[in-house]
Every structure is written in C-alpha cells, then in structure tokens.
Amino acid sequence: MKQLKVAAAIIINNGKILCVQRGLNKFDYISEKFEFPGGKIEAGELPSDTVVREIHEELEMNIAVEQDFLTVNHEYPDFKIQMHSFICSTPTRELELSEHISFKWLDVSELWDLDWAAADVPIVDKLIKELDQ
Ligand SMILES: Nc1nc2c([nH]c(=O)n2[C@H]2C[C@H](O)[C@@H](COP(=O)(O)OP(=O)(O)OP(=O)(O)O)O2)c(=O)[nH]1
C-alpha cells in the first residue's frame, strides 16, 4: 500500500486555530473534510520546512514553526499516511485560499464542530487535552 509522508501546521493566532476544508476528492473519506494545512514532504526536506513552504504556497501566509506537536500514523482504505504536525504562529490572519474550499479560525473548544479527516482526530484530541482549560 502507498505510504505518504505529510507535514501539517496547527496555526494559532490570538488563541484561534486555522482549520481548512479540502474540496471534492476521489476518495470519499477525505472529500470535503477539514484538516490542518500542509502537504507532502519532499525528498531531503525537513518536515518543519515542508509546513513553511506549503503554507506559503497554499495560503500565501508566512508562519513560524514553534514546536513539534504529534506524529500520526493512519491507514486509510487506499493508502497510509504518516503525518507530522507542528504548532505554528502567524502575525496576521490574512490568507488567500487556493486549494481549499473554506477555512475557519476556531477556539480549541469548537474544533469538534467540524468533520475532520480521520488522520487528524488524534491531533484534535491532543489539542483539546492540552489547550482547553
Ligand atoms: N495537508 C494535510 N493532508 C492531510 C491531512 N489529513 C489527512 O488525512 N491528509 C491527507 C490528505 C492527502 O491524501 C495527504 C496530503 O497530501 P497533499 O496535501 O499533498 O494532498 P493531495 O493528495 O490533494 O495533493 P496532490 O497529490 O494533488 O499534490 O494527506 C491534514 O491535516 N493536512
């Protein structure tokens, strides 16, 4: 089975977390799901560099990586992913959507209002455990 290596950014600005929605996809289990922005790690690239590059490409946003958060291994029906996630900061909430169909800036307590890609569920759980007080 194909194994993807992905890096994703949990971008926090004034306590709100950026959540982005994927468009229609050939795999119904990721189609229109919410996720953290990011993408595939290129050969020789550090995962923390992947998130800075991808967030600039996809959202025209400049972020700073603050800390390693969680690495998730998830098996979808057609492929496996290993996803590294990082807590990141950004000086402004300005962004330009190019690959996603919507976005929301949410408090951690609101994260479960969204329909997340399955691989993101452990990240959302950990954010709620660590940040919701
Ligand atoms: N970026 C990102 N991808 C995620 C998350 N959760 C999750 O299951 N994925 C999956 C969806 C994709 O299959 C893969 C990420 O690859 P990608 O962003 O390059 O997406 P893609 O397959 O649409 O891209 P491409 O082949 O068109 O370049 O990981 C997440 O939180 N962020």
Automatic annotation (TrEMBL):
Database matches in Gene3D superfamilies: Nucleoside Triphosphate Pyrophosphohydrolase (3.90.79.10)
GO terms (BP aspect): DNA repair; DNA replication
EC category name: hydrolase
Domain of life: Bacteria
Matches recorded under InterPro entries: MutT-like (IPR047127), NUDIX_hydrolase-like_dom_sf (IPR015797), NUDIX_hydrolase_dom (IPR000086)
Similarity section: Belongs to the Nudix hydrolase family.
Protein's recorded name: 8-oxo-dGTP diphosphatase
